[in-house]
Structures are given as structure tokens and as C-alpha cells.
Write a structure and sequence with these properties.
The protein is of the alpha/beta class. It folds into two domains: 202 residues, Rossmann fold (3-Layer(aba) Sandwich); 136 residues, OB fold (Dihydrolipoamide Acetyltransferase, E2P) (Beta Barrel). It is 26% helix and 27% strand. The protein has nine helices and 16 strands. Strands 3-2-1-4-5-6-7 form a seven-stranded mixed beta sheet. Strands 12-11-10-13-14-16-15 form a seven-stranded mixed beta sheet, with helices on both faces. The protein has a two-stranded antiparallel sheet with strand order 8-9. Helix 2 packs antiparallel against helix 3 and helix 7 runs parallel beside helix 8. The radius of gyration is 22 Å and the shape is globular. The two termini are 27 Å apart.
């Protein structure tokens, strides 16, 4: 893989919490070095395949304050109640933060409001192993285009008085939506439980490449809004001239589906989550896009049914954007045997993409790999794999 070429950037000081907080692992490297390191590791990982072209990694347009979603834990650090992220390699400890370079510039103000509310009301942080305490997380979502914020207070019980917090949040006009999430289970998943809107709007909006996305507290959306545009643009470039009908498996809230709708006669989006499909339908209506069809089904069963009925031959493209675990065994076999001419596979876990490609390349050639740096200051990268049927 050829080293990338980017305009050198001067790192404007390393975050004071770097090295202790587990949020970043390479902020001490200049950005161009981070990209070269990612290219080298991806090149090594995919060296086992016969790939016609590996593109240079697409840099993130912004390398700080790029994340649109974060979940900050509440805990005790040196006998002081704090809000922050888990300590590196010591997940049970919470590092108290007063800044976070990867989320939002206004975070110190939000944390100040939240910390004052905790102190004024003597609210006890939740203790995972003991199952005691009340307050677990403050989850935040941020629209980069519209600069709106959603706050989700996660507690172990609804017996928590949020009135003072809401009063202060209202003074900060960017916070458009406040939810209470009651998570009284053993799971440490942040936003998991009963959700109640306690102030403001139900949803916030983000805009990518001219398409608006309505986002709720549990919506699945690409983490880096700034780099989402180049990611979707690269996918559209790869599909240019394809035409026909597309099948978007694991479509989420319609992120890719709506972006590519204008180059196909119709696009079918499939997702196992009812919530994702509800979001996708809202977003299609929001953008007046009427040549998309969203179906709530398990991707594995749906593509098997299409193959059995022969309806799979109606599609010219299959788009895959699975969770980190990759495709199930039966799904990757069904895709391999589908004979659909074009496959676009978007992966946030290159290692698992490699496992799926071992099966898919029995029937498809890898035309191109396009790495995308969705996660600056970490070792993670997104990869777009473009495959063509060997039967063409």
C-alpha cells in the first residue's frame, strides 16, 4: 500500500487526560503518522487477497471534536464524584474529565452543569459490582451540521429529580432534547432501558451530503459526521453507472440507502431492528425520497428467501454494512451464491471483513479497497470493499 499524502497538521497540544483515559490511544502521534500506521496495518491484514487496487486512506476532514455520540460514565475518583470515561485497561474506574478532544467543544460547560447538579442534590453514582447508587451515564448526541445536542441521563431508577438539571440545560440553547433512560438491569450498556422524553424535542437532525437524518436517542448512525460525507461519496463513486435495483442489507436508519437512491430505479433496505426501520421511513419522508422500500427482517433469512425464490436476480447491487461482528455464516454463503454482479461491503472491523472475504472471494473478485479514517486518534478504521462477480 502506498503511503498517504495529507497536508501536515500541527497537533494543538495533547489532551491532559491522554494516557489515562481510554477514549484515545494515538493522540500523541501526528495525524499523518496515524494514517500511515493504519495503511500499513491494513495492507498487512489484506495481503492474503488478490486485490486489484488499494486506495490511499481517506482522511477525516476534522480530527478533533468529530464524534457525534459519546457515553460518559459517572463514578468516584479519589473520593470525588466525577463524570468521564473508563480508565485505560481498568474498566471499573472512571477518569474524571473536564475536556474531551474527540467530541464537542462545549463539553466543559455541559459537564459543569451536570457536575453541579450531582453535587447540589448529593446524587450517588451507580456502582456496577455492588449494584448500588443511582446515576450511571450521561449520553450525548451532537449534530455537527445543525449544532444541536441531545442529552440522555441514564439512571438505575426513575426516582431521580431532574428538574434542576433541566432548568440549567434550558439556559444552554444548543441542548434541544433531554431524555431519562432507566437502566435497572445488570448490563452496563449505557442507553438500554425505558426511555422518557423529559424536555425539548423528540429528535435532532444531522445533514450529510444534502440529506437530512432525523436521529433519536437509540438511532444507529455513523460516529464521525464529518467523515461520513466522504465515506458516502466514495460509495456513490463506486456505484456510478450501475443502475437497476439495489439491496441494502443491515441498512440501519437508511444512511447509505438514501444517499444512493438517486442512482438506482429503486433501493430495498433491510434491517432486523424495528427501531431502525422506523427511523429509515421517517428519513425517507423527510427527504421526499420515494423510490426506497424498507423492510424489517433478519438479513440472513431475507436473502435466503430471495435466493430460493429467484428474486435475488432482480438486483444489480448488494450493499452490506453489518455490525462489528460481520456477516453470519449463512448470510455470507447466500451472498456468495447470489450471483449479483456487484457487492459493496462497508466494514468498521477490518479483521472480520477479512474473514467474510475468504468466503466471498470464492465467487467474487476484489476490485478495490478504500480505507476511511472514521476514528482519528484511535487504531480503528473503516474499509469499503468493492467486489465484482467472477461470472461477468
Amino acid at each position: 500500500m502506498t503511503p498517504c499524502e495529507v497536508t501536515p497538521r500541527q497537533i494543538a497540544g495533547i489532551c491532559k487526560h491522554f494516557g489515562v483515559c481510554g477514549g484515545c490511544d494515538s493522540q500523541d502521534l501526528p495525524y499523518e503518522e496515524q494514517l500511515k500506521d493504519k495503511e500499513a496495518r491494513l495492507g498487512e491484514l489484506f495481503s492474503q487477497f488478490n486485490i486489484k487496487e488499494i486506495k490511499r486512506i481517506i482522511p477525516s476532514p476534522e480530527i478533533y471534536h468529530y464524534r457525534n455520540k459519546m457515553e460518559y460514565a459517572v463514578g468516584v475518583w479519589d473520593a470525588v464524584k466525577v463524570i468521564g470515561l473508563r480508565e485505560k485497561k481498568r474498566f471499573y474506574r472512571v477518569v474524571g474529565l473536564d475536556e474531551c478532544r474527540i467530541f464537542n467543544k462545549d463539553l466543559s460547560r455541559i459537564f459543569g452543569i451536570f457536575s453541579d447538579w450531582i453535587a447540589d442534590n448529593n446524587i450517588e453514582p451507580y456502582h456496577n459490582s455492588k449494584g448500588t447508587g443511582l446515576l450511571r451515564y450521561l449520553a450525548l448526541r451532537h449534530s455537527k451540521y445543525y449544532d444541536d445536542l441531545m442529552a440522555i441521563v441514564v439512571a438505575s431508577s426513575d426516582k431521580i429529580d431532574t428538574r434542576g438539571l433541566i432548568d440549567e440545560f434550558r439556559k444552554f440553547k444548543k441542548i434541544r432534547s433531554v431524555y431519562l433512560c432507566v437502566n435497572d438491569g445488570l448490563s452496563d450498556v449505557a442507553v438500554a432501558g425505558r426511555l422518557k422524553l423529559i424536555d425539548g424535542d423528540e429528535r435532532i437532525k444531522e445533514r450529510i451530503n444534502g440529506i437530512d437524518y432525523s436521529i433519536g436517542p437509540e438511532s444507529f448512525f455513523q460516529t464521525n459526521s464529518y467523515c461520513c460525507g466522504p465515506l458516502y461519496t466514495a460509495i456513490k463513486e463506486a456505484l456510478k453507472g450501475t443502475g437497476g435495483s439495489a439491496l441494502d442489507l443491515c441498512c440501519g436508519l437508511g444512511g447509505i440507502t438514501l444517499q444512493v437512491a438517486d442512482i438506482f430505479s429503486d433501493v430495498t433496505g433491510v434491517d432486523i431492528s424495528e427501531r431502525n426501520i422506523e427511523d429509515a421511513l421517517i428519513n425517507a419522508k423527510l427527504n421526499n425520497i420515494d423510490n426506497v422500500n424498507f423492510i424489517c427482517r433478519d438479513a440472513e433469512k431475507y436473502i435466503q428467501e430471495l435466493s430460493t425464490s429467484g428474486a435475488i436476480k432482480n438486483f444489480t447491487v448488494i450493499i452490506l454494512d453489518p455490525p462489528r461482528a460481520g456477516l453470519s455464516k449463512k448470510t455470507r454463503l447466500a451472498v456468495r451464491d447470489s450471483r449479483v454482479k456487484n457487492i459493496i461491503y462497508v466494514s468498521c472491523n477490518p479483521k472480520n471483513l477479512g474473514q467474510d472475504l475468504k468466503v466471498l472471494t470464492e465467487a467474487y473478485d476484489i476490485e478495490k479497497l478504500i480505507p476511511v479514517d472514521m476514528f482519528p486518534h484511535t487504531r480503528h478504521a473503516e474499509v469499503i470493499a468493492i467486489l465484482k462477480s467472477q461470472l461477468i
